[in-house]
């Protein structure tokens, strides 16, 4: 299977399956895997308990961590031509706009604008879109302690912010996959179809893949 990319980024709301898909595609293509280091953020559990109080330190910790990873990605891997990541740097601002107060957002933006200009640019962005019910179910199944306080209303708010962001996204070719009714983790046919659309079809802007489970 011929590869036309050097860097693919997979995005989606919490629980959409972006990390799982990144890992599966990495295994199939011997790629370099770059995962968001959310476990290293000491403020994240506190954020889900008190969103207003801990939004700013949580956001700044993520910004610093993500930028460090972006710099590392700019260096070539001699043994792997393809890099697959489970986030894009620009998405950091989705959470910032959603959670920060005006003065905090102004300070954040002054730093973010410098960093985003020298971050790695994906050859393709894959946005995994999903219903809030499916997101909640996925979150319940993986049962991370600090995610137990995530509410459907917060996920709905976040989903709307993501949809708005990717509706206007034009920095890289974008592929949108609705994952509400599919299971690429357990169903290999679903994964095969996604892989085929990514690697065997010509690169295009704003490609929307709608997978019908009964037809696969």
From TrEMBL:
<protein>
    <submittedName>
        <fullName>Deoxyadenosine/deoxycytidine kinase</fullName>
    </submittedName>
</protein>
<dbReference type="GO" id="GO:0005524">
    <property type="term" value="F:ATP binding"/>
</dbReference>
<dbReference type="InterPro" id="IPR027417">
    <property type="entry name" value="P-loop_NTPase"/>
</dbReference>
<keyword id="KW-0547">Nucleotide-binding</keyword>
<feature type="domain" description="Deoxynucleoside kinase">
    <location>
        <begin position="8"/>
        <end position="198"/>
    </location>
</feature>
<keyword id="KW-0067">ATP-binding</keyword>
<dbReference type="InterPro" id="IPR002624">
    <property type="entry name" value="DCK/DGK"/>
</dbReference>
<feature type="binding site">
    <location>
        <begin position="12"/>
        <end position="20"/>
    </location>
    <ligand>
        <name>ATP</name>
    </ligand>
</feature>
<keyword id="KW-0418">Kinase</keyword>
<dbReference type="InterPro" id="IPR050566">
    <property type="entry name" value="Deoxyribonucleoside_kinase"/>
</dbReference>
<dbReference type="Pfam" id="PF01712">
    <property type="entry name" value="dNK"/>
</dbReference>
<dbReference type="GO" id="GO:0019136">
    <property type="term" value="F:deoxynucleoside kinase activity"/>
</dbReference>
<keyword id="KW-0808">Transferase</keyword>
<dbReference type="GO" id="GO:0005737">
    <property type="term" value="C:cytoplasm"/>
</dbReference>
<feature type="active site" description="Proton acceptor">
    <location>
        <position position="86"/>
    </location>
</feature>
<dbReference type="InterPro" id="IPR031314">
    <property type="entry name" value="DNK_dom"/>
</dbReference>
């Amino acid at each position: 299977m011929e590869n036309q990319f050097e860097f693919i980024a997979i995005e989606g709301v919490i629980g959409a399956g972006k990390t799982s898909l990144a890992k599966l595609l990495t295994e199939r293509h011997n790629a370099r895997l770059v995962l968001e280091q959310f476990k290293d953020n000491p403020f994240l559990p506190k954020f889900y308990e008190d969103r207003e109080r801990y939004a700013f330190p949580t956001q700044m910790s993520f910004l610093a961590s993500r930028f460090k990873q972006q710099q590392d990605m700019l260096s070539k891997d001699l043994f792997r031509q393809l890099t697959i990541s489970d986030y894009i740097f620009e998405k950091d601002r989705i959470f910032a706009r959603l959670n920060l107060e005006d003065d905090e957002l102004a300070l954040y933006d002054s730093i973010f604008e410098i960093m985003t200009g020298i971050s790695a640019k994906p050859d393709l962005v894959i946005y995994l879109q999903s219903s809030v019910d499916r997101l909640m179910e996925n979150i319940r199944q993986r049962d991370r302690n600090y995610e137990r306080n995530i509410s459907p209303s917060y996920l709905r708010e976040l989903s709307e912010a993501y949809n708005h962001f990717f509706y206007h996204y034009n920095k890289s070719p974008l592929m949108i996959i609705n994952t509400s009714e599919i299971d690429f983790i357990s169903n290999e046919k679903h994964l095969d179809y996604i892989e085929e659309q990514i690697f065997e079809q010509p690169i295009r802007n704003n490609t929307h893949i709608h997978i019908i489970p009964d037809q696969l």
